[in-house]
């Protein structure tokens, strides 16, 4: 077998200067052919291995070249939220190749995220892999999903710069690459607002990603268990088990409701020793659910108070590791702090040199195009109508993002069908009707099988408002039909049924 | 409302020197009564708050005092694995108070852990909260679960020293406390063996806890996604997607089988761009499944090879961040390294001054008592028969631990019923029959609806061996009936059905 070892060593030497992948045959008892193919003969390559050149992040050596006229045009989508995913789902992959760039490989079904923090739903039930939403990205030859952040847009060259997301000490260092686009859709969303308040980023937990819900759950269960251990003072116990929610919008109200449900049912049963110490406080500077009908607001206030949530008017001045300082000097000790005061433009959006709408979002026209540049669109929480359109900036809601994604998919398909898919080709194409948003109504749950449904078209309008169990049933049904795949619909239904029968899960994993 | 503020300030001053919990009434719009009760008047306390005295870990100020003759005797269980949980489930809580000390609040259903790494099962389906196994620990006044590690045993004083498990920067620092016991059961398990090989702890992932399975899953999905990004060489891609499993016992074989299943079905469908680069190698120094019948071993070898797992004879010398060095100098590059070469005594067990069995486990007699000390028992992977008993040390298997837990529960209930429950009271009590272990057979799956069932009583004996689909069906059914609660039985069945219909989940959360 010497010939074999020689071949291995020669190919190995030829293919790599930095790493030796020799695999002497004496060690291999089965399927040696695999080893040769993978560790040696396939390794003829010119690009330096990223792990062997840590300086790679400054020199971009590779990426996706511009498409040729005989190839499918390429739509590059930044982000994997409601807007981006709905767009990708609707794009005709016979016309376009789809490339998605996002730091996460799934869409989060945000309206149900609050339920996962206390174990009503499993984390996986609210996460939908992008590969299920648009299967082409994992199978079609020119479509890809890249786990990366966009670092810059060159609208003249029609290309973007990206940096991979990696983690862990043993992982490869992040590296940069470029992607040329025919159409670029910026749907990278917004960031949680902290209003520059000191300590928020360090000590509060937001509620926007699955990882946030996991962190809240781990902390809540840790605090419940720690407060039962001998040696802890009653005062410290009260602090550890004081859950404070800042912000009385739908997310804050739903989370408070879920939390008080969890306390009423599960903590009383499973953490009986400490049940009298746990409390939920919701702090809001103005009014809770300010976008809802006044009758619904009153109902929500009554229901939350009834289920033990303390509603406090206050403005946060500073957040310290174990207490919040309000504007008037009041100190509020806490064990868990959840921050949900709405969203603002992300640093990436702030840094782009594209035109801006009021509020600092990327400015778009009536067709969701970014004017002044070619082939760039923006949808979702990161986009807003330009002042020149005379239209208001739409609220940062899942239904706005979803509707924009659906609209833009139709528009791009129409453009592509008539040959306007490639870069700088769509100047004379008929774009179709403008994007018009019609509000279908708002929903929020307040716990204990109670919810609010506000079916008014706008804040001033008149319309149907519902409260109570019927409303809660509508809330659950509406979400169930919107959860993207059948797999997750099935899982959410099973989760709800299991929680109803067996109670919530309390294992801290 | 000045009277109210004064009361708040006075009680607050009286109760705490270090922290102010004043909550001026002007801010409180609802349920002020709660605040007073929780932040002030309940805070009369003498023990210093742990957070205000970081030095608390050296001075133990509190804990559970010895039980009085008119109180229920207290059984303290160290650990929450198969042995400890089966014991707690069987203990009669009319006779005993049960206190469990463990760094995790759930039992892991270890035989199904390998399936969670690739998304066949959800993580939560294999974790059973201790509060469901023995509800008394969360509700009965004298029974507790403490999230802590045992740091020392004083058999003369009949007490143990513990330190709480905490995490996160904003959490309280860990503190120490004491627990007096009437009966102590050491069931803290074993640790993964590294045989002192350099780099194993730093770079390999074990497969013993849910967190390990989560880490494996995150790394596998990260590597799959990274290897699709432009700028990565083919050689680096092959390295990233090379999954190496060290150890050919049931865990290593099952994980390899699950992984090759995942590759054959899900990677080929969902990561089509990189499917030719991913490979699984199982490295074993001797033979795979060495405890099984020779016919079953041959079958397993054939099945694994057929499904693409490369079996390699080899002894690992050193583990580096991206490659393994074998004893003969061969270098094996890897992207994911899973280490499952069996278990050995933990540092805690090594440090105790109790008698030891061959192999360094805590030595027990035929009734699972630790001789030479009063009221101490040991079960599970941390215990072994003393040489003087003339019996062999039992293998570190779930079924041994489960049988020992069940036996000891019956023994302790019998002792407690005749008044021997309190410390130093059981000298003349009739203990009943000795513990005798009868091996019921071994099972292992090799992926693709194939499994092995070895129903021989021991390695040399003759008996029934099964392979193939029937065997796989038995394997699944057997596990389904053993998953502890109906909730988890239901979930595991639902997970299996969903995976069968929709494929595995690939979201990286």
TrEMBL record, chains A, B:
Reported cofactor(s): FAD
Chain ranges of the FAD/NAD(P)-binding domain: 74-405
GO MF entries: NADH dehydrogenase (quinone) (non-electrogenic) activity
Region named Disordered: 43-68
Keyword Repeat (UniProt): no
Keyword hit for Transport: no
Pfam families: NDH2_C (PF22366), Pyr_redox_2 (PF07992)
Entries under InterPro entries matching the protein: FAD/NAD-bd_sf (IPR036188), FAD/NAD-binding_dom (IPR023753), NDH-2 (IPR045024), NDH2-like_C (IPR054585)
Membrane topology field: Peripheral membrane protein
Location of this chain's protein in the cell: Mitochondrion inner membrane
Stretches with biased composition (Low complexity): 43-62
Catalytic activity entry: a ubiquinone + NADH + H(+) = a ubiquinol + NAD(+); a quinone + NADH + H(+) = a quinol + NAD(+)
Annotated EC: 1.6.5.9
Residue ranges of every copy of the External alternative NADH-ubiquinone oxidoreductase-like C-terminal domain listed in the record: 439-505
Keyword tags: FAD, Flavoprotein, Membrane, Mitochondrion, Mitochondrion inner membrane, NAD, NADP, Oxidoreductase, Peroxisome, Transit peptide
GO-annotated cellular components: mitochondrial inner membrane
Domain of life assignment: Eukaryota
Transmembrane segments: none
Family: Belongs to the NADH dehydrogenase family.
Primary role: Alternative NADH-ubiquinone oxidoreductase which catalyzes the oxidation of mitochondrial NADH does not translocate protons across the inner mitochondrial membrane.
Record-given protein name: NADH:ubiquinone reductase (non-electrogenic)
Organism: Aquilegia coerulea (Rocky mountain columbine)
